[in-house]
Amino acid sequence: MKIITNEALIAKRKKIATRLSPLAMVLLLGGLATNIISLRDDAVSPLLFYATLALLVLGFLTSTIATGLINRWVREPRADQHLTNALKGFDNKHTLFNYTAKAPHILISPTRLYAITTKFHDGQVSVKNGKWHRNFSFGRLLRFFADEGLGNPTLEAQQNAQILTKLVTSNLPEAADIPIQPVIVFTDPKIDLTVEGSDVPVLKGKQLKTFIREGTKGASIAADTRKKLISLFNPPPKK
Predict the structure, then answer these.
(1) Low-confidence stretches of the chain (pLDDT beneath 70)
(2) I need a labelling partner for 157 at 20 to 30 A (CA). Which of 117, 132, 200, 218 fits?
(3) Spatial CA neighbour of 59 closest among 83, 14, 29
């Protein structure tokens, strides 16, 4: 299998995360310091009050953004690494693209395209007739500020598939009839997943390879079209 990953983007996001994290700490400590200073006076200074509020709010927001970036781009294995391991062993008719287009993970198989949406959550997660639920746990409570919300993976996967569809139809009209399949993949092996009705396939990471193999029915993508798709999803770097 061919794997094409935007390493420059990963490095850039890592750098941002490692810079925001200490900045968040400075802002939070600054808010704590101004709060302590204000408590020394009998009457709270409006200036110190607003300074404390501003520093704490900015610190919280910066910390939240930094934590999200760290979880996604610094903590390993990253989503792209999980997918690489999950799909290991496929031949060169399969090409995986990570972060090279607006849809984060794209797989070209012999017969179709996959828009893969990854989730790294653990614990008990369920979807029933399109409605998602994540059970409460004390572990989540302890890492409250570091935990990214589940959101609506179905909607996210459908949006990624729409992005991929628009990209293909706008740039390669001759490839517009190639099936595009959205799929949701939970990469954490500790996930306890229950699926009871979903418009989009929902899988554990270890199930992905079997799912791709089962989707080989249909007309094969022509070699020249495959080359055009690869060029489309992996454009040359801007000078």
Answers:
(1) 41-44, 136-148, 237-239
(2) 218
(3) 29
What's the pLDDT score for residue 1?
A: 93
User: 68 and 135 in one domain?
Assistant: no
In a 3-state reduction of DSSP, which class is residue 37? Answer: helix
Cβ(8)–Cβ(64) below 8 Å = no
Mean pLDDT across the chain? 90
The total domain count for the chain is 2
Strand order in the sheet with 123-128: 131-134, 123-128, 191-196
Q: Are 17 and 134 found together in one domain? A: no
128 and 17 share one domain: no
Contact assessment for residue 87 and residue 107, using Cβ atoms and an 8 Å cutoff: yes
Q: What is the tens place of the pLDDT at every residue in 206-225?
A: 999 999 999 888 889 999 99
Burial of 14 (0-12, 13-18, 19+ CB in 10 A): middle
pLDDT reported for residue 219: 86
Report yes or no: 191 and 123 within 8 Å, Cβ to Cβ: yes
